[in-house]
Amino acid sequence: MSTGDPKKYGSVDVIFVLCEICHWCATYFDKSRIPYNRCPICKSTALSTFPILPNEEFTFDFDEKHGVELEFGIRKGKDKGKGRQ
Ligand SMILES: [Zn+2]
User: Within a domain: residue 6?
Assistant: First the structure.
């Protein structure tokens, strides 16, 4: 087992980015890769970012009547209590 890996998952935030204009969305595992407030598709600046914690999960839903719906929750399942990725 080596501890020399500079990238620890525990220190990386997952960021969900959503464009409010064209509804382009992406999940980033590295903050430095997020396009700076500009949508790569429609070039609008109406981007929303949502940080996702390692023990959280979310569902993404798009409906013409209701728009975009995001539902956040605590991840349930087998890996209870452990921060294993
Ligand atoms: Zn867009």
Answer: no
